[in-house]
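Friendly challenge for the regulars: who can give me the structure tokens for this chain first? No prize, just bragging rights.
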Amino acid sequence: MKNNKQKNQNQSRRQFVQQTAMATGAFLTVPMGVERMANVHGEQKLKLALVGCGGRGSGAAVQALTADENVELVAMADAFADRVDRSLKGIQEHFEGQKKIDVKEKNRFVGFDAYKKAIDLADVVILTTPPGFRPYHFEYAIANGKHVFMEKPVATDPVGIRKVLETAKIAKAKKLNVVVGLQRHYQSKYIDLKQRIDSGAIGQIRSGQVYWNDAGVWVKARQAGQSELEYQMRNWYYFNWLCGDHILEQHIHNIDVANWFIGDYPISAQGMGGRQVRNGKDHGEIFDHHFVEFTYANGAVIASQCRHIPGTMRRVDEVFQGTQGTVEIGKGEITNLNGESTYKYPSRDSEDPNPYQVEHDRLFASIRSGGVIADAENGAKSTLTAILGRMATYTGKKITFEEALNSELHLMPEEVTWNSTPPSLPDADGNYPIPTPGKTKMI
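First reply, four minutes later:
Bragging rights claimed.
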């Protein structure tokens, strides 16, 4: 029954959300006061706010509303009114006939300060704007005592990472739940294989390969009458202050799995990358391919590759070689040093619970039970790992994790208004400055 229900949810989500960007949730047993216990147990209605009303935010709102019988969407915020309207319409259609949505017109907030107004009205907030804004939205939510689901990556620069790490400490002190959308930590196959690796199924991991190679994502063409800021906000994937490049926005998933399975974060990175095919004016300033070697303290080296080029090999996967064997996560298989299969994950992904839904199920169950999920620190450090990789490919230099963590690189302005000038501007021909290995400096 549960699997059938989940399949229906998966199908509805695919129909509703056209584009979705693809830390085990750490439960901490924390004593709570009687008053707070009353607030999380029983039948109290939890009010939900959505900040960032694109496809991923809309999908996350549907999953949050599905996760708990007594949660209600009460507020929405986005830089653009049309995105709020489109998102609300889709969510309403998904829950037609159910009392899950009460977003009054006065609680549909638009603009760069809209997030504060929406967060103020909620108990639980979903943060799914372009990731450059995430550290500031997260800081405000935690400062005001809200439980949080936030998408990865959690920042686009080291200054933002440090803000998230500091806010994560405050969230723990306040006993607030924070789930980060690195959903492989909530996926049955990954959890099963991780437990087996921890039990010594392949010995100590010495090397690995992680991949996010595909044809690329959407492009939003410049429209007549748009300001430079609106154009970049609409086409946010291609500007580093907003997105951080695809090594960060997508490939973070695979990089995070490497960190998780090794049980550490790398000490250094070196690599290469560039723009060979995706190099038009609407492609902003990001690369279309990156290759990075991440070196860990125990000597393990992970080869990381991501590519957005049509007509090339597609692969999204992780493979690790240990002293006694290999695990290939896509296949769900462990082999020994002779290449003989010693374990095969028994289920297909389509039969397992949807990890995107499980994230929210776990979040709301923890809120109700008085537990605490603390994903933010790992989310920040895996985000920083991807930023480290970007620094290495942009500069062509070997860069340490500590250098990246302490870098003063600050891509995202502290405050953005519609009168702001974007950090990256085109030249007279409409072309944006592109990082050049050997010349670009990132520290």
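The chain has two domains: 2-184+354-382, 188-353. DSSP finds 14 helices and 17 strands in the chain. Your move, everyone else.
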